[in-house]
Inverse folding.
């Protein structure tokens, strides 16, 4: 029997600090559940744990992929299972921490059994998008698979195209094509914890302050180094990450610094909204609120009780 502790929450909710403290108080090892932290050379904008923190508290699935190479939910599923087995071989408990809800979902519910990409069909979809625009393609996705459309941002060209491609190939919505295989079964225990401010205005304020801090810490310079590599562009999932995309557009000269800052903050708030939408429908989820000064103590007491049982 396996036990997983899943610490979820929107961006800027304080998950990292809680996780680092939990490792000191419990026999845990951290597995990152974040689609941006997997990439090397993307440290400041992802609020990646510092080198000192990583040395003191090793994390799995951080700095494992070059930004030129996409990382999928299927990749995470396989890598996470391997990390879980490794941690359990040390008689420790995996603590999965992050805000990429799709990754938590595929681990707990199974990964979609989807057909391979069809280049000809994909080209047809891209040509339609060029003619109609991506908002219209997202509207088309809403008509055939509302659940998937709610989870895919209207600007996420790659995932919109893939969802439309799957429907054209199978006649079934991508949200319904679930593999029966999943980590969660009667032999495994999954403890789901959510950390978030109760007041959305508090979260919005934290997001704005954090984005400004990232800029002060050299976020633009970090993206500039990626920009100057010459092998990256806005079609790469890594560069489409929140904040990176907006700074990339600024470096291209398409928007001003002030517009970049504003768009970066808005995009981060939109990400947090999507994360909260996922969490509100999550089964068996125990909520803890960031404003509570005794928040960590409450989480610790809860975990002590759960693990004792």
């Amino acid at each position: 029997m396996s036990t997983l502790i899943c610490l979820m929450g929107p961006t800027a909710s304080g998950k990292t600090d809680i996780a680092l403290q939990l490792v000191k108080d419990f026999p845990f090892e951290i597995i990152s559940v974040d689609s941006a932290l997997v990439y090397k050379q993307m440290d400041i904008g992802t609020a990646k744990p510092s080198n000192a923190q990583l040395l003191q508290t090793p994390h799995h699935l951080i700095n494992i992929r070059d930004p030129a190479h996409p990382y999928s939910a299927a990749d995470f599923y396989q890598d996470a299972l391997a990390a879980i087995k490794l941690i359990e071989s040390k008689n420790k408990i995996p603590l999965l921490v992050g805000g990429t809800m799709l990754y938590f979902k595929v681990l707990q519910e199974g990964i979609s059994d989807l057909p391979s990409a069809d280049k000809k069909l994909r080209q047809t979809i891209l040509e339609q998008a060029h003619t109609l625009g991506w908002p219209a393609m997202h509207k088309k996705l809403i008509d055939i698979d509302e659940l998937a459309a709610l989870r895919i941002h209207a600007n996420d060209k790659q995932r919109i195209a893939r969802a439309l491609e799957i429907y054209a190939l199978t006649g079934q919505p991508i949200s319904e094509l679930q593999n029966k295989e999943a980590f969660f079964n009667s032999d495994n225990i999954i403890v789901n914890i959510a950390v978030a401010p109760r007041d959305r205005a508090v979260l919005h304020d934290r997001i704005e302050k954090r984005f400004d801090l990232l800029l002060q810490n050299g976020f633009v310079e970090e993206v500039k180094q990626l920009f100057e590599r010459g092998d990256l562009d806005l079609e790469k999932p890594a560069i489409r990450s929140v904040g990176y995309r907006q700074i990339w557009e600024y470096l291209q000269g398409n928007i001003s610094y002030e517009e970049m800052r504003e768009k970066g903050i808005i995009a981060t708030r939109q990400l947090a909204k999507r994360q909260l939408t996922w969490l509100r429908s999550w089964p068996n989820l125990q909520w803890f609120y960031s404003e509570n000064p005794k928040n960590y103590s409450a989480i610790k007491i809860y975990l002590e009780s759960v693990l004792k049982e």
Observations:
- The chain has two domains: 2-111+179-308, 119-176.
- Residues 148 and 175 are 6 Å apart (CA to CA).
- Residues 2-111+179-308 form a domain with the Rossmann fold fold (CATH 3.40.50.300).
